[in-house]
Design a protein that fits this description.
Layout: E1 15-17, H1 27-35, H2 39-44, E2 46-48, H3 57-64, E3 72-81, E4 84-93, H4 100-107, E5 112-115, H5 118-125, E6 143-146, H6 147-151, E7 155-158, E8 165-168, H7 170-173, E9 179-182
Parallel strand pairs: 4-6, 6-9
Antiparallel strand pairs: 1-2, 2-8, 3-4, 3-5, 7-8
InterPro entries: YbaK/aa-tRNA-synt-asso_dom_sf, YbaK/aa-tRNA-synth-assoc-dom
Pfam family, one: tRNA_edit
Organism: Streptomyces thermolineatus
Length: about 190
């Protein structure tokens, strides 16, 4: 692993391979990277240190020179049928919106789907609000990935904490545990 990797975009003072920065990641994220069966994908993930006060997407992209089209947001949804509710995560490019009411609901076979409350998303993922990432989601959760994310050369996602972000190939996102690439997930 390189001591000084170069990110594919953005202006960051500190860039490391994520595996060399596990102490700076939320525990579920660090554990997922260390235990990812696809070692090549795990080794391709970069960590960039950033100001947590600039974690919100639009502010972040402007501050660090990241194109909005290279940033992806991970949202937690609750899909329900009757009294049963099941969580899932959705990943879409930041300049798009996840179609929760139609595409997500239909794909998960739910009668109703909505964004999970913030406190529920934080408690169930073990990650901070504003840093939730597709890397290290709870086992068994579906990860619905918009096809544009999977097709992107690289995407920037959270690190599990508001401080720091991860950059990884879109193709690696599609190989995360539980990932399903869906056309039309976002628009």
């Amino acid at each position: 692993m390189s001591d000084h990797p170069t990110p594919p975009f953005g202006n960051f003072e500190t860039v490391r391979t994520a595996l060399d920065a596990c102490d700076l990641l939320a525990r579920p994220v660090a554990d997922a990277l260390k235990n990812w069966d696809d070692r090549r994908a795990a080794e391709s993930v970069l960590y960039v240190d950033t100001d947590p006060a600039k974690a919100d997407t639009a502010v972040f992209c402007e501050a660090y020179g990241v194109p909005l089209e290279a940033s992806a947001n991970c949202v937690v949804v609750a899909a329900g049928r009757g009294a049963d509710t099941a969580p899932a995560a959705c990943l879409a490019l930041a300049h798009t919106r996840v179609d929760v009411n139609r595409t997500v609901r239909k794909h998960l076979g739910a009668r109703k789907a909505s964004f999970a409350p913030v406190d529920t998303a934080v408690a169930e993922t073990g990650m901070e609000y504003g840093g939730i990432t597709p890397v290290g989601l709870p086992g068994g959760w579906p990860l619905l990935v918009d096809e544009a994310v999977a097709a992107a050369p690289y995407v920037l996602v959270g690190s599990g904490l508001r401080r720091g972000k991860l950059i990884l190939p879109g193709s690696a996102v599609a190989r995360l545990p539980g990932a399903e690439v869906l056309p039309g997930l976002a628009g």
